[in-house]
Amino acid sequence: MLNCRDEVLALTKKLVKIPSIVNTSGEKEIALYIYQLLKEWPYFQAHPDHLLLSRTEEKEPERYNVMALVQGTKRRSNDTVILMGHFDTVGIDDFAHLQDTAFDPEQLSAAYLNEDIPERVKQELKSGQWLYGRGVLDMKGGLAGHLYLLKNYAEHPENLAGNLLLAAECDEEDSSHGVLSALNVLKQWEETYPLKYIAAINADFVAPRYEGDENRYIYKGSVGKLLPSFYITGKETHVGSCFEGFDPNFLAAELTREINYNPELCDSAFGETPAPPVSLKQTDLKPSYTVQTALAAYVYYNFLIYSWSPKDVLDKLKHHAEIAFERALSEFTRRYQSYCELSGEEVHPVPWKVRVMTYEEFESILVEQNGEVYTEHMKEFREELLADTSLDSRMYSARVVEEAWKFMKDKSPAIILFYSSLYSPRVELTGKNEQEQRLLDALEYAVKKIQPHYPQPIVTRNFFPYISDMSFMAISDDEEGIQAVCNNNPGWGTKQFVNYQDIRDINVPVICIGPYGLDAHKKYERAEMHYSFEIVPNLINEVIQDILK
Q: What is the pTM of this model?
């Protein structure tokens, strides 16, 4: 066993004290810190070309990844294990009056002693076995372990039969610009040195799956994440004549009732099931108050997948949107008829029909109807819309669909289904080839060897259940699935673009062995120190040793 706890703990605290909130200058600051730290190591003074401060490919903000390569001398080999991890964190608004101490574990722990905190948090704080603070768990503790291992082999390359490559990335908590930019460096180094990537090990956090769960999980592969979005048009009317129109908010509410928490929309694979979809935004698009019903509504949902492709999800959601539309029309008709009975008004047939289309279908209709007039206008509109920096990719996409709708000849109520954020691909690790099996065998060996040194069960599962940069190291979807993402994203090629071929080119089996703790992204974020700073680095080291033997 490596005696690493004190060094990993100390390094974790140093990293945590740099407030590297995503999309702030702190991301640049911590990248420079890590780069300068590694630059002082004798190995990188002797091999300066093995260390790179690599700016991301986006124009703004200015931020960097740190890439570092240690080549072993025990046995010369191209085989390379990637140690990956992000150094950005979420914000600290939830710390309220303790924001000044959120990035200082010692000060924060002292402050908590004077706070009215939950009993479990209090007991764990008093035990001295937990480290508190923003980023200790997600995921600076894991990155500190990676740095420890890299340093260990930089000082003793004679113990390494192969190579280690560190990819310390920015922007995992928002749009994964860090790892997407890192792919190009990985491809370049693959040819320059040359390298053969045989495994990637992420050290993102792990947590209990349910109350009372004592397992410490290791994950093979990763969940995929989509953001299916719906632009919903109605028929506007004065609120005093409400049944002369069709309120898109009414339809949006029915759509959310159909999709939210629906177990029919849970993907399952290898006996595991991710959380069902849930809405992340629901709004109409009225800019201000009027007594006219809204012209359109907008809603999007988090959607997690293990085996379904993005095309599968579109097909399923189109079907469920049709169910919601039919139900909304039926309820509208029933209420309209009941109102007419009360008021004595004459009943007229409801003129609208179920109308759901994907963005690709919508776009095809508009091109057919309007030709170059439409395509040229929308090209200019997208470019001009980029100047509005207040729009994230989700609202940018909504505005594109809203503008495109103006060209639709049939303005009857409709639902248009599309993706408004990048797709984080699902990753399966099943042993389907020799490379995957080699990693699975090394992981099984590592757990068997380290388990006697830790009292709680160390358990492997098939899919990392949270969004992470693991999704951009390998890809399990076929081309049809990926094209469904590209063809149904209104911001594709302007506000958003991912070269999924870069992922296919790397396509390395990936696992997650990370710190254990509680309340990631919350005020009481904390890591259990024995497992996080001692067991985890040893588990990773055993995988490295076995897979490179």
A: 0.91
Under DSSP, is residue 522 helix (H, G, I), strand (E, B) or coil? coil
The terminus-to-terminus CA distance of the chain in angstroms comes to 18
By DSSP bridging, strand 510-512 and strand 196-202 are parallel
Average pLDDT in the 474-482 region?
Answer: 91
C-alpha of 468 from chain center: 5
Beta bridge partners of 298: 231, 283
Q: Would you list the DSSP string of 267-288?
A: --BTTB-PPPPEEEEEEE--SS
The two structure tokens encoding residue 455: 């009292």
Distance CA 445, CA 448 (A): 5
8 Å CB contact between 12 and 27: no
Confidence of residue 150 (pLDDT cuts 50, 70, 90): very high
Cα distances (angstroms) measured from residue 226 to each of 159, 256, 300, 423, 474 = 42, 16, 10, 5, 16
**Beta-sheet strands, E only, within 152-195:** 163-169
User: What's the pLDDT tens digit per position in 210-268?
Assistant: 999 999 999 999 999 999 999 999 999 999 999 999 999 999 999 999 999 999 999 99
- According to the model, what pLDDT value does residue 175 have? 86
Residue type, 470: M
Side-by-side strand order, sheet with 51-55: 51-55, 64-71, 163-169, 79-86, 196-202, 510-512, 216-220, 458-461
* One-character DSSP codes across 473-489: T-----HHHHHHHHHT-
What pLDDT does residue 458 have? Answer: 98
User: What's the confidence (pLDDT) of residue 513?
Assistant: 98
Domains of the chain: 5-223+424-473+508-547 (3.40.630.10), 228-419 (3.30.70.360)
Q: Do residues 164 and 83 make contact, with C-beta atoms less than 8 angstroms apart?
A: yes
CA distance 206 to 139: 10
Q: How far apart are CA 230 and CA 496, in angstroms?
A: 18
Q: How confident is the model at residue 493 (pLDDT cuts 50, 70, 90)?
A: very high
Inter-helix orientation angle 434-450/536-547, to 10°:
140
Q: In Å, how far from its chain's centre is CA 68?
A: 24
- H or E element in which residue 448 lies: helix 434-450
Structure token pair of residue 542 = 């055993």
